[in-house]
Each structure stands twice: as C-alpha cells, then as structure tokens.
C-alpha cells in the first residue's frame, strides 16, 4: 500500500476553484494526469451531479446521471475531444436512477462500452420495470419526475461486479468494494493509481463551497448498521481523496467520514424520536439546522428536498427494524 500523504497546497486551491467553477466540460483533477470531472447539472443544480472520466488506454466514465442528463454527458465527452464510440466502460456506483438511469440511453452511442454494475443490481438494469416503479413510490410523483426513466440493457452489455473484482484500464486499476447501507447494490471503487475512492452515495452527500456534509438515506432499502460498517471500511482504506458523485473531490477523507459517522446515527435518532410526535416539517427544520446552516451556494429548497428523501428513508428503516425485532 502506498504511503498516505497530506494534500498539497495546489490541490487545495484547485478544489476551491472547482467548487466555484462547477465545470460543465471535463476538467482535470489534481491527483493524476488522466482523471477528469464534469458537472452535468443533475436536477438542474450546479455542483450536484458529478461524472468522472478516466482517459486511460481503456476510456472509462464513472456514473451516468439520469436519462435527462444524457445529452450533457455526450456533450462533455465530445468537448473533451473523445467520441462516445471511444468509451470502453461505464461504471455505475449503484442502480438508483440518478447514477445508472442514463446508462441504457448512452449505450447506443457507445458501441464498445460495457456497463459495470453490482451483482445485486444487474437484473434490475436488464429489466428496470420494478426499479423505476419503486423509485416512483419512494420519491412521490413530483420528486420522481427529476429522476427520469430507464431503458433496459441487454445482459451481454453488462458486467456483474462483486466485492474484490478489478478492472484494469492501463495505468489505472479499479478495485470494486461491496459497500451496502445506502442501498444493497452499492459499490465504492478504489483507483489504485491515485488511491482516490469513488464513493457513489455510500459516504453521503458533499456540497463543496458550502462545505456541507449530509447523510443520504433513501427508502426502500437504507440500512444504518450496514452503512456504518461501510464507513469503517472506507476509513481503513486511508484514501487520498473521496470522489463524491454528489459532488466532487473531498481532500480530507478521514474528517469527512468521521463527520458522517456522527451525523447518520444522529439523524436516525431524531427521525425515530420526533417524526411521530412533531411531524415531518419540524424534523426537517431540525436536520437542516444541524447540517446546513452554512448554506449559501445551495438553496434551502434544494437542500430540504434532499433531507426529505432521508426522512422517509429513515422512517421506513425504523419500521423494518421494528417489524424484525418489536420493542427494539
Ligand atoms: Zn442512491
């Protein structure tokens, strides 16, 4: 294992520049010469949907955003100087629509590409009917509009990934890690060349600039205990940076993960103790005060929408636990 080193001052400057710039085209990250980040304006919000490109011998795109962002993903690839036909691999951290929704729409433009997905998510990309329906139920009709839809992917264009699998890109080698909690089909991905970890939604949400770190605990399958074990695993990797899907690089991984290890149980407790008695709006206010007081760049409405997703996810987690072990 390579020795960990503190981030250089130049990286710090870049990060704060990126946080202000939110690049629409692929811009270099400071960790190696091949890794790039683009902002695809997920949910029409700047600095929320990150797509990563590894411009190695095998060209790889990490995350695909929703079906709504497909045009912007292709635009960013072309503006970078590649053709969609050049892409060899699409990696999705998990199968939620804001990560994997674009994949089925991108593939016809990318005849060489295969989609790398957690083995537990594989069948849902072949037939996304139940997945799209379950997202609609979990998010409600209004919010689910933003998540677009999915197109089935032929099994021969999918690669089912399990814990410990590797993908050799040339200079870079990706190591896939089973990372349940946010969802049972969640992967985190360690790039062994730069020791950065793509966290998907396994490490929560990061709002750069405002420096907000926020849990994301959606229905129907969020599992607090499993997510806490995933945090332990991420800490043990001693990564150089966390590459959040929402949004961008965080160069103090230990601090970020430790903050999440406090925030997740705290949010879970507040929902458990207060949702029934005080109601959703009061819980929403408390969680906003707790995590988002520093918000400037991101609007209150946008942040509150994210928090609501976690309130209903945590409520359904507690119900599931209660059913499994009454009186807990
Ligand atoms: Zn997700």
Structure, described:
The structure is a single chain. This protein is of the alpha/beta class and 328 residues long. It has a single domain (9-261), classed as 4-Layer Sandwich (Metallo-beta-lactamase, Chain A). It has helices at 9-21, 70-80, 97-100, 103-106, 122-126, 129-145, 224-237, 253-278, 280-292, 300-324; strands at 27-28, 35-39, 50-55, 59-62, 87-91, 114-118, 158-161, 166-168, 173-178, 187-191, 196-200, 205-207, 212-214, 241-244, 248-250. A seven-stranded mixed beta sheet has the order 1-2-3-4-5-6-7. Strands 8-9-10-11-14-15 form a six-stranded mixed beta sheet. Mean pLDDT is 93; it is low at 1-19. The structure holds zinc ion. Residues 94, 96, 99, 182-183, 201 line the site of zinc ion (ZN).
Task: Give the structure's gist in a few sentences.
This protein has 328 residues and is of the alpha/beta class. Helices cover 40% and strands 19% of the residues.
Taken as a percent bin, the fraction of beta residues is: 15-25%
Bound molecules: zinc ion
Q: Given the helix and strand composition, which structural class is it?
A: alpha/beta
Shape label: globular
Backbone CA Rg: 19 Å
CATH class: Alpha Beta
The succession of helices and strands, N to C, reads HEEEEHEHHEHHEEEEEEEHEEHHH
Distance between the termini: 41 Å
The number of domains is 1
What is the β-strand count? 15
**What would you give as the CATH superfamily?**
Ribonuclease Z/Hydroxyacylglutathione hydrolase-like
By CATH, the architecture is named 4-Layer Sandwich
- How do the strands of the widest beta sheet line up side by side? 1-2-3-4-5-6-7
Q: List low-pLDDT spans.
A: 1-19
Q: Can you tell me the CATH topology?
A: Metallo-beta-lactamase, Chain A
- Structure annotation, total helices: 10
Strand count, sense and barrel status of the largest sheet are: 7 strands, mixed
Helix content: 40-55%
Whole-number mean pLDDT: 93
